[in-house]
């Protein structure tokens, strides 16, 4: 079973209220080492077989058309994660 | 500016309606190479300075206490992503 991981983050100029809320909560819980937080999405797409270049191209196309909203989000990575455990 | 990335995914035994919806939409849009999809979260924690072992330990602690719900989610990775662009 292959796996493609797609990472999507809000664009830098877009407000990110979830990230802001986390950034505000961290110091209250004693985690004072962080200056800002952004929250995005991670998709794990399972493939029946190996991750071929065609599958990876499909994943890249799906990332920008279905998995992200290009007005407010950037696809930051589309990676073959077949080797990773879990 | 350093950056720590925390990846959180729903546990395998937990239903993931968002992932299911994406998995159903992919073939309708012509992406037929994928058998299942899971949707999780990606956090980017910005650090003022370098990512030290202490910062990474803080991030790991924050990942399991604040960034994820351990009843339904797994922290799949806490990584120093300072070298990555953007």
UniProtKB/TrEMBL annotation, chains A, B:
Q: What is its EC number?
A: 6.3.5.3
Q: How does it assemble?
A: Part of the FGAM synthase complex composed of 1 PurL, 1 PurQ and 2 PurS subunits.
Subcellular location(s) per record: Cytoplasm
- Which classification does the entry list for the species? Bacteria, Bacillati, Actinomycetota, Actinomycetes, Micrococcales
Q: Which SUPFAM superfamilies match?
A: PurS-like
User: In the UniProt record, what gene is named as encoding this protein?
Assistant: purS
Q: Which InterPro entries match?
A: PurS, PurS-like_sf
Q: In which pathway does it act?
A: Purine metabolism; IMP biosynthesis via de novo pathway; 5-amino-1-(5-phospho-D-ribosyl)imidazole from N(2)-formyl-N(1)-(5-phospho-D-ribosyl)glycinamide: step 1/2
Specify the superkingdom. Bacteria
The name this protein carries in UniProt is: Phosphoribosylformylglycinamidine synthase subunit PurS
Q: Which UniProt keywords apply?
A: ATP-binding, Cytoplasm, Ligase, Nucleotide-binding, Purine biosynthesis
Function (record text): Part of the phosphoribosylformylglycinamidine synthase complex involved in the purines biosynthetic pathway. Catalyzes the ATP-dependent conversion of formylglycinamide ribonucleotide (FGAR) and glutamine to yield formylglycinamidine ribonucleotide (FGAM) and glutamate. The FGAM synthase complex is composed of three subunits. PurQ produces an ammonia molecule by converting glutamine to glutamate. PurL transfers the ammonia molecule to FGAR to form FGAM in an ATP-dependent manner.
Quote the NCBIfam families the UniProt record gives.
phosphoribosylformylglycinamidine synthase subunit PurS, PRK05974.1
